[in-house]
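User: I'm putting together notes for a lab meeting next week and I want to include a structural view of one of the chains we've been expressing. I don't have a solved structure, so I'd like a prediction I can at least talk through. The sequence is below, exactly as it appears in our construct file.
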Amino acid sequence: MAGTYDDRDGKIWMDGKLVDWRGAQVHVLTHALHYASSVFEGERAYNGKIFLGHEHSERLLTSGRLIDMEIPWTADQIDAAKDEVLAANGFKDAYVRAIAFRGAGEDMGVASSRNPVRLVIAAWEWGAYYGDAKMKGAKLDISKWKRPSPETIPSAAKAAGLYMICTMSKHAAEAKGCSDAMMLDYRGYVAEATGANIFFVKNGEVHTPLADCFLNGLTRQTVIRLLKEKGITVHERHIMPEELAGFEQCWLTGTAAEVTPVGQIGDYTFEVGALTRDIAETYEKHVRA
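Assistant: Thanks for the context. Below is the predicted structure for the 289-residue chain, given as structure tokens.
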């Protein structure tokens, strides 16, 4: 599939029915467009099956509740809709995007409790998120923007509005020739990339930031489990940016990123080492099992 995302062939699921791709429209006074009242999930299907699809559906519902937006579908119904989208488009290996949002209605201010909550599911074929970085290692900038305190945002929600600083950070990184940016949290600890969690290796052990103010990704959780099953020690802890000088390897995890090695963050360099390659291969086998 090629072309801009609003001009493609195919089907998109909207509020209970499949519609033509180009006809999947919303009104310009949709509340989410103005106030970011929206939550979403990014998922990948391998060989026709969505990896952790039900867990993603459950998280979508949880994200909705965290931003005071009850989504009027069950996880099982969302699962079925995602399968319907894959079948309608003839996809086996694909990226799946489910998004719930407050639509146009009686309210057009900050409050929106009288507006309907809508649900849309689309899918498209999508290769490696970071291109050839999956082989040679991504280059990351260090963002000037920090992940906020959980006292200021619902940090456990995969909410659209929380990605604004991620978009800004990635744009700045790309302008410098980087693939992405690493973000610190409000305390100055290493947090994550703009759309992926981050891992480091030192002396055969793995270190990853404690997910106490950013999304604890499903891919992150999977990779930690796979590492522990291999007998590898994993430290989930606060990491200061100056510690990067002592780490030997680094990788990113996420539904889109899968497991992507990192070769450079700012002035710090890392090897695409054996452990990084091994966990990337293990994850690839796991999701296709």
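A couple of points you could mention at the meeting. The two ends are 26 Å apart (CA to CA). The chain has a mean pLDDT of 96.

User: Perfect, that's what I needed.
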